[in-house]
């Protein structure tokens, strides 16, 4: 009997950029829409609303990129420190590290003899890679990439933020809040759908949870805007 080998794609391979992308787009859409929604509720002049929207878009994108870069860089530094420590142990205590790897495989269900054989062969091939993957949990898929995360966050924030800015720009003053509310909720639903599909997750829970946060955000900022508009 012959077997054909194939490699199926896995959704976890997208985690590095998918998390940053979804977070950026969600933040851009909700934060800018809520800001403009609350500002429109206070009934300022249209020029003020537009300047605020564009300024918030630029500042938010830069903030997301910087925050994601610093956060993921810290993760990458921790991973490098762990790998350096593991390499030191492999150099100075190779037998103990081999025994540790054997125990890991035995805990996963391999027999003593097979666990020893697997540990020895993987150690001969690439000891650091074996310990990084099976002892620490660091793989090429999960390894942090600061620049990739920062770029994905900034671009996705701009994409998410552009919707409420353009809706505000193209809407009449009397219809700004209604158009913002409708477009934001539709945009959030599409974002939830796309993120669920890209990540292989159920669609309905993803849409529901993102819509709940969107409604809360729009509702709270509108109340703040109405309050300050009446107080002015």
From TrEMBL:
Molecular-function GO terms, alphabetical: manganese ion transmembrane transporter activity
Database matches in InterPro entries: Ccc1_fam
Signal peptide: none
Highest taxon of the lineage: Bacteria
CDD domains according to UniProt: Nodulin-21_like_1
Keyword Oxidoreductase: no
GO cellular component: endomembrane system
Membrane topology, from the record: Multi-pass membrane protein
Pfam families recorded: VIT1
Residue intervals passing through the bilayer: 20-42, 48-70, 149-170, 176-194, 206-230
Subcellular location: Endomembrane system
Coiled coil (residue ranges): none
GO BP terms: intracellular manganese ion homeostasis
Keywords annotated in UniProt: Membrane, Transmembrane, Transmembrane helix
Protein name listed in UniProt: VIT family protein
């Amino acid at each position: 009997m012959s077997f054909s080998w194939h490699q199926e794609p896995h959704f976890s391979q997208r985690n590095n950029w998918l998390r940053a992308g979804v977070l950026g787009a969600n933040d851009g859409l909700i934060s800018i829409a809520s800001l403009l929604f609350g500002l429109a509720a206070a009934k300022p002049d249209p020029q003020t609303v537009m300047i605020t929207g564009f300024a918030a878009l630029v500042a938010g994108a830069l903030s997301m990129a910087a925050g994601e870069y610093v956060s993921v860089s810290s993760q990458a530094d921790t991973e490098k420190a762990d790998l350096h420590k593991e390499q030191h142990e492999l150099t100075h205590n190779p037998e103990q590290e081999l025994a540790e790897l054997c125990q890991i495989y035995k805990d996963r269900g391999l027999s003593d003899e097979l666990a020893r054989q697997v540990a020895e062969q993987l150690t001969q091939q690439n000891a650091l890679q074996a310990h990084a993957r099976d002892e620490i949990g660091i793989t090429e898929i999960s390894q942090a990439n600061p620049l990739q995360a920062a770029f994905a966050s900034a671009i996705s924030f701009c994409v998410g933020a552009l919707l409420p800015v353009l809706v505000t720009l193209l809407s009449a003053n009397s219809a700004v809040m209604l158009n913002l509310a409708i477009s934001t909720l539709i945009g959030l639903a599409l974002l939830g759908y796309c993120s669920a599909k890209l990540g292989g997750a159920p669609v309905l829970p993803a849409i529901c949870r993102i819509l709940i946060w969107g409604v809360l955000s729009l509702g709270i900022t509108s109340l703040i805007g109405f309050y300050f508009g009446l107080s002015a």
